[in-house]
Specification:
Layout (H helix, E strand, L loop, with lengths): L1 H9 L9 H10 L1 E5 L4 E3 L7 E7 L2 E6 L5 E7 L4 E2 L1 H6 L6 E4 L3 E7 H10 L1 H27 L2 H16 L3 E3 L4 H7 L4 H13 L3 E4 L2 E4 L2 H9 L3
Antiparallel strand pairs: 1-8, 2-7, 3-6, 3-8, 4-5, 4-7, 9-11, 10-11
């Protein structure tokens, strides 16, 4: 089991480059956790006792209104960690997390990790760098939602998928309803935006597969302000 945890921790971006002795210290406090698709890991308002890293599968972090409307904040995949901030603050989770598919996660308790950070300044610096990057990404997401129309948001999203999947023919990583939630809109409006980009010759759509026909045009649309 310790070997499995070491292998899992070594594949997490937050812990890249960490010397073997520090990884072993981390493995002593970490737990491997399996969860099923649809399983809730934590809900907004619950005490932030642990943070997590994805070994395999995908997890969405989202906020839900009293009326039940959801806004997806992020989707985390293998190698990514989440829920660090409330754990470090010692406060509650500000959002909920749910497995999108069967997952294997690393669960790390707040108390043990804070003690480890005090002993390992290099790890603390890595955490700071990751959180700074996460903050920059959220600022960009807020700008997308508040300043751009849905076609521009969709263009930016498709470019992110293209970069992540390293090809022009991309596979949508979420059901269209959840993509609409992530982009701050509704499925009907998203469908109209997809149709608009298709009619402009920027993309070609076949089910969950999207071919980016004009990356430069898509980038120009994503960067435009209206």
């Amino acid at each position: 089991m310790e070997k499995d945890k070491l292998t899992a921790l070594g594949g997490i971006r937050l812990f890249e480059g960490l010397p073997q002795p520090q990884l072993k210290s981390l493995a002593e406090i970490a737990q491997l956790k399996g969860c099923k698709a649809g399983e809730t890991l934590f809900e907004a308002g619950q005490p932030g006792t642990h943070f997590y890293a994805v070994v395999s599968g995908r997890v969405r972090v989202y906020r839900a209104s009293l009326s039940g409307k959801e806004q997806i904040l992020s989707v985390f995949t293998a190698g990514e960690s989440f829920a660090e901030v409330p754990v470090f603050e010692g406060k509650t989770y500000p959002a909920s997390a749910q497995a999108l598919e069967d997952c294997v996660l690393v669960s790390i308790p707040r108390k043990g990790f804070v003690e480890l950070l005090r002993r390992e300044p290099e790890l603390a610096l890595g955490v700071m760098a990751l959180l700074s990057s996460r903050l920059r990404a959220f600022v960009g997401q807020i700008a997308q939602l508040s300043l751009k129309e849905v076609p521009e948001r969709l263009a930016g999203y498709l470019l992110l998928l293209r970069a992540a999947q390293k090809r022009d023919d991309v596979t949508l990583d979420l059901p269209k309803g959840q993509i609409a939630s992530y982009l701050g809109t509704i499925p009907e409006t998203l469908s109209r935006a997809i149709k608009k980009l298709s009619e402009q010759g920027l993309i070609e759509v076949a089910g969950s597969h999207v071919s980016v026909l004009d990356p430069e045009g898509l980038a120009a649309l994503a960067e435009s302000d209206r």
